[in-house]
Prior knowledge:
29% helix; Jelly Rolls; alpha+beta; 20% strand; Clavaminate synthase-like protein; 10 helices; 9-stranded mixed β-sheet; 4-stranded antiparallel β-sheet
Amino acid sequence: MLLLRVTSPQRYFTVTRASWARRTLATVADTPSFRIPLIDFGKYLNASSDAEKRQTAQEVVNGFKEVGFVYLDKHGVPSSTVSNAFSRSAEFFSLPKEVKQKLAWEDPRSNRGYVAVGRERVTQSADANEIAQLRAKAPDFKESMEIGRDWDQTWKNQWPQESDAPRFKQTMLDFYQTCHDLHVQVMRAIALGLDLDESYFDGKIDQQCHNLRLLSYPPIKTDLLRGDGQARAGAHSDYGTLTLLFQDSVGGLEVQNPHTKQFQPAPPIPGSIVINAGDLLARWSNDVLRSTLHRVVAPPAKKISETEGITPHRQSIAFFCNPNFDAEISCLPTCVGPDNTAKYSPVTTEQYIVGRLTATYM
């Protein structure tokens, strides 16, 4: 297991495999170090013994316990698959605004469709009025396309015409399934790391109630980012079990150090996937696993005048993994005891996620 240690909230860089071995960063004096583990997940997927599988599973769980984030390497998702998804995503966001607006997001129960720049304001607040005020003052400077399971009988995905976005639909359907399959494997590792049966979560996540979010952060002049509370995406935790994040080389993701409360960069590592635990996994584990605040900030801008700059375009793809909507999220049996009573009342996935989405968008 390799460890990423980052201590400067202002510094952005892309880590290459060659520089990885050479790079040594000092920790902040008198504060606990902040390490996001880089885990070779191939050792779990291709384990030759139960002991080897459990060792990797424990590394995954420890990462979520200590930081809430891990980098997953050798995860089995081909780089060509990721590159193809990014290409189709870029083509979609390059469509005329009026074409994208025909696919506009409408309902938190569906959580499907196109979200224009400024419509969303992610935050930890659950108060709709407070979020509306934040959105008016400091909207998130990004646009997204939300995709759910395509066979849902109640809620339908909003696909562009094939003539407008060739191969977009099939590419995203294939990528959705690829991400779900990896999610199942990571949840099995978590189960082992928490001393549960490896298949404990299988029947609770098999309905694929996930959300594939394509994200585009358009170039923006720096004067628009100087206002109070401005960000590309505000500080928040995610709602479900896990989030699989695929980043381009631009960077901008920052994770809150749980010890110092400072936000620190989580730079892209070629070939890896950033995975973080969400609110429902934290509730399920009685906060044994950490749902960590994170945000997206603008990368360094290109100077266009003496007083103004413009940021580069950024792309990312997030796969928000959720339990089945009717699954009851109550304390796992290995995460409760005489000295560690259950902190949360049971809640269904749908109750929790729809409530958070309603406040975020409406």
